[in-house]
Amino acid sequence: MFDDAFWMRLALHKAWEYQGLTYPNPAVGAVVIKNGRLLSLQAHQKAGTSHAEVLALIEAYCSLSSSSIFFDPLDASFSHDFLLSLDNGFFNECTMYVTLEPCSHHGKTPSCATLLAKLSLKRVVIATSDPIKGHDGGMRLLSNVTFGVLQSEAEILIEPFKIWQKKAFVLFKLAQTSNGRIGGGYLSATDSLYHVHQLRGVCDRLLIGGNTVRADRPTLDCRFAGELAPDVTIYSRQKTFDLTIPLFGVPNRDVIITDELDFLEIPSFVLVEGGEGMLRVLAQRLDWLLLYQTPKLSTNPLSYNIDMNLQFLHHQYGKRDILIWSKNLGH
User: Fold this and answer.
1) Which residues, at least 6 apart from 258, have a Cβ–Cβ distance to it below 8 Å?
2) Sign of the C-alpha dihedral computed for residues 54, 57, 63 and 64 taken in this order
3) Checking DSSP bridges between strand 205-209 and strand 268-273, what pairing results, if any?
4) CB atoms within 10 A of CB 84
5) DSSP type of residue 47
6) N or C: which end of the chain has fewer CB atoms below 10 A?
7) Does residue 312 contact residue 326 with C-beta atoms inside 8 Å?
8) In degrees rounded to 5, what are phi and psi of residue 205?
9) Residues recognised as catalytic
């Protein structure tokens, strides 16, 4: 028989698939089971859309009723109304596992805690509490709550959310071969590139070094994901650039050239792409690193020659690459 930690770990792994993509919301995963059988495994996907709990309940409904739905489950208001329209007691024998305390407030989406209270699930198992005052208190609306299952792992999951309440959450993205080389054109698989473009699409600002701009002449858009291109800050002491470099020609984009990093004190999500120089500049300021490790060896001489201690947080497999999330521990 699987225990609470097993089901919560499934929810945590699912939430990591959307880490950063839910900005400014936290990454959250949810599982629904009945009599030891998995009914659904879902995660919050994008701010303004249905939360993990709602998506998990919709999928659980489809599993229990052996039927499909006629609406977009990402439509939070409609999904809440649909779940409340089900026969009283539909989920009475179900248990939900959720990585973060269900929200108690009604914002862009209705309150998940209020919904769960009305649906009267058998149990609600919660990993950790909501750190935002005014959003917390969801547990007080529920009965049969089990709290603190894999709490430390859940706290790591929402660390970016807590950081960007106070200052910029600075995420340095890098791609390298299995022998640590970073040059020679695209290294990442197509699905990894798509993931990078998704992150670009939600970040407040993309930060890149001036040398990288001059050498690579990038576009830095989100064409793979179909999102609007991010605003760009170029960190450079030399302010003169060839304005025919594609990134300068993207419509409706704000491009700032600066040698100051004070903007990193403003609550936001800043994605960084660059080489060793940019990594050195940010060594004391960046929070996490996201490495796309490709199964390839290369003779290209470029690499990140820097001393930096990291803590591995999570890894996930793409179609070819491994994505490794790490925390910067400094020198």
Assistant:
1) 233, 234, 235, 236
2) negative
3) parallel
4) 12
5) T
6) N
7) yes
8) -155, 140
9) 53
Q: Centre a 10 Å sphere on the Cβ of residue 301 and count the other Cβ atoms it contains.
A: 9
pTM of the complete model: 0.94
End-to-end CA distance of the chain: give it in Å, rounded.
Answer: 44
Look at residues 95, 91, 84, 93 and name the one whose alpha carbon lies nearest to residue 30: 95
- Please give the C-alpha separations between residue 117 and each of 75, 104, 124, 134, 251, in angstroms, as whole numbers: 20, 11, 10, 18, 47
In the sheet where 322-330 sits, what is the strand order?
A: 255-258, 232-235, 205-209, 268-273, 168-177, 288-294, 322-330, 309-317
Whole-angstrom Cα distance, residue 5 to residue 288?
A: 26
On the question of pLDDT at 173 being above 80, the answer is yes
Distances (CA, A) of 47 to 25, 94, 150, 200: 6, 27, 25, 15
Closest CA to 209 of 178, 237, 171: 237
Amino acid at 73: P
Tens of pLDDT, residue by residue over 7-58, are 999 999 999 999 999 999 999 999 999 999 999 999 999 999 999 999 999 9
